[in-house]
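Input record (one chain):
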Amino acid sequence: MKGVTARQQGLINCHDCHLLVDMSQGHLQCPRCGAHLHLRKPNSLARTWALVCAAIILIVPANILPITITTSLGAKQADTIMSGVIYFMQSGSWEIAVVIFIASIFVPFAKLLILILLLVSVRWRWRWHPKDRTSLYRLTELVGRWSMVDIYVVTILVALVKLGAVAAIEAGPAAVYFAAVVVITMFAAESFDPRLIWDVIEEDV
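The corresponding structure, as predicted from the sequence alone:
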């Protein structure tokens, strides 16, 4: 039975409790937990495309608008994510600059590019390196939560730097857009069904 999938054996996996159910018995719900059974996540491609497009739209103001607004002795200074990275580089804090750049700029853009690649590959029924594409999908799930590091930094700064009339830091409008991008890309990765990558390969077996 090497290389035979559950679907080829007439079995379906419950998404909630992972029970293998015999499809020949006409089950529409899992006999163990009562969840609705689906061979693949319903409307996986359409939902993922919608979420990816929403993230692409929101990522523009997330990088253009200020993410922090600093008030010091009556003077205000607004900083975007990239200007914050440049500031830390110029001040010699290369480690912080690299962390913010990777987590707040590189990772969100990379996740969107990977998701678009996976969606296009499934749409055009590519047979190119299915294992590598599956690994890319796992990577997007793994790094998703670390994209919030910039929001964590802003939150900590806002909580700590409260010096009254001397200085104060407030979260800028970009923080809301950036948090939305992170959450939406996490939902997009969750809504994509990686088994669709292998369906084309299975048809050739």
